[in-house]
Specification:
Shape: globular
Number of helices: 0
Number of domains: 1
Order of helices and strands: EEEEE
Number of strands: 5
Strand order of the largest sheet: 4-3-2-1-5
Helix content: under 10%
Low-confidence stretches: none
Largest sheet: 5 strands, antiparallel
Structural class: mainly beta
């Protein structure tokens, strides 16, 4: 998994009816874009996470 600051981390719901959680990557702590990442969720909560197999990175659009 590889990400840059500004990319989105999407954690998919694990059970029926559970919504996906979307966070913006604000800091890449690992080397060369690898986890862990510092993220900010849409509700303002911030966390450091190492995404699992139920997550994906959505890269920001190139300018």
């Amino acid at each position: 998994m590889h990400a840059d600051v500004g990319d989105k981390l999407v954690q998919h719901g694990r059970v029926v009816g559970q919504h996906d959680k979307v966070a913006e990557i604000t800091e890449v702590i690992g080397t060369e874009g690898t986890p862990p990442y510092r993220v900010r969720f849409t509700d303002g909560h911030e966390a450091v996470c190492s995404p699992g197999p139920d997550s994906e990175i959505r890269h920001k659009d190139p300018l």
